[in-house]
Specification:
This protein is α/β, with parallel strands linked by helices. It folds into 2 domains: 171 residues, ATPase, nucleotide binding domain (Nucleotidyltransferase, domain 5, 2-Layer Sandwich); 168 residues, ATPase, nucleotide binding domain (Nucleotidyltransferase, domain 5). The protein is built from 11 helices and 12 strands. The two termini are 22 Å apart.
């Protein structure tokens, strides 16, 4: 089924989107899939910063404590009540299973209590669809570079709900590498913004860090070797008694990551004849990556799309957007929907989903 076969509901359709895959409790009310009426995010960064990273049990507990208040606030800011909501969409994977379960339970309860359609949403799809909110005129086909703390994907989207993963990380995701290197440099958590800021004051050519998997027509990524190279450089400088040039190391590391992401994305887009490239995910907030990929796309006459910073990090609006289009395609979730920590984009278990034209058994 494709967009030509989609059965869109009447104008004014309201979707409540819930996102709890990691360390943000996020809820949004979205009209007709792309118009955001409210987007509330309760961040747990202060709670996890003291540990230098996300602690799954702490994340789950925080979601339990805040989910109800965040839902209520999203409805108030949208000027709506649950009586106005016509659909509930919720992230069910991938992510931290305990955190996911909080959102899934809340979404199922709201939908079941109001007899509303429920749509379980893939978190990675959500990041991709953030661009549809940012650019209402955007339509597939397209190539999406999705980069976050847990994921680095190159995804070819041929139509709504139709994806092909053309490249992905073989080890650390780009965002994970940023966090680990920031920890090595004692910059703070989360690492992305600290690396980005330090890099602006450093020399990106100061240290020649490696660029992995430089093979023709290979669009996979690997950042664990780069992380190890940074660690080796730091240790070597200490052994030599040299003061560590933190800004230069941050700039050189970031340049290595950006070079690989941009080169592979452009090469993949040209190879597959894609005229539109999207950037999304938490690392899409990185200023150098946004600028470099934008310039590269322009030089190749490729249309480039990237969402506002508020839509790069985890949010409920992107989940509501995916849920809306799944609804239009006739997809619904069964009441036994469960969390899947390692969910793959495009994967949909039949035991938890059914088309609207199929009787629920």
């Amino acid at each position: 089924m494709n967009r030509k076969q989609m059965n869109k509901p009447a104008t004014g359709w309201l979707t409540l989107g819930i996102e709890t895959s990691c360390d943000e409790t996020a809820v949004s009310v979205v009209e007709d899939g792309r118009k955001v009426l409210s987007s509330v995010v309760a961040s747990q960064i202060p709670e996890h910063r003291k540990f230098g990273g996300v602690v799954p049990e702490v994340a789950s507990r925080q979601h339990v404590e805040t989910i109800t208040q965040v839902i209520d606030q999203a409805l108030v800011e949208a000027g709506k009540t649950m009586g106005d909501i016509q659909q509930v969409a919720v992230t069910y994977g991938p992510g931290l299973v305990g955190a996911l379960l909080v959102g899934v339970a809340a979404g199922k309860a709201l939908a079941y209590g109001r007899d509303l359609p429920l749509n379980g949403v893939n978190h990675i799809e959500g990041h991709l669809y953030a661009n549809f909110i940012q650019s209402p005129e955007l339509e597939p086909p397209l190539l999406a570079l999705i980069v976050s703390g847990g994921h680095t994907h190159l995804v070819k989207m041929t139509d709504y709900g139709e994806y092909e993963v053309l490249g992905k990380t073989r080890d650390d995701a780009a965002g994970e590498a940023f966090d680990k290197v920031a920890r090595l440099l004692e910059l703070g958590y989360p690492g992305g913004p600290f690396i980005d800021e330090a890099a602006k004051k450093g020399n990106p050519c100061a240290v020649d860090f490696p660029r992995a998997i430089q093979e023709e027509n290979n669009w996979d990524f690997s950042f664990s070797g780069l992380k190890s190279a940074v660690l080796n450089h730091i240790n070597t400088e200490k052994m030599k008694g040299h003061p560590l040039q933190v800004n230069d190391v941050a700039a050189s590391f970031q340049q290595a990551v950006v070079d690989v992401l941009v080169d592979k994305t452009i090469d993949c887009a040209l190879h597959h004849g894609m005229s539109q490239v999207l950037l999304s995910g938490g690392v899409a907030a990185n200023s150098q990556l946004r600028e470099a990929l934008g310039r590269a796309c322009k030089s190749k006459n490729i249309s480039f799309h990237v969402p506002d910073l508020t839509l790069c990090t985890d949010n409920g609006a992107m989940i509501a957007c995916v849920g809306y289009y799944d609804y239009c395609l006739g997809i619904r979730s069964r009441w036994n929907l469960n969390a899947v920590a390692s969910l793959v984009i495009g994967e949909r278990q039949n035991k938890w989903f059914y088309p609207i034209y199929e009787e629920l058994t």
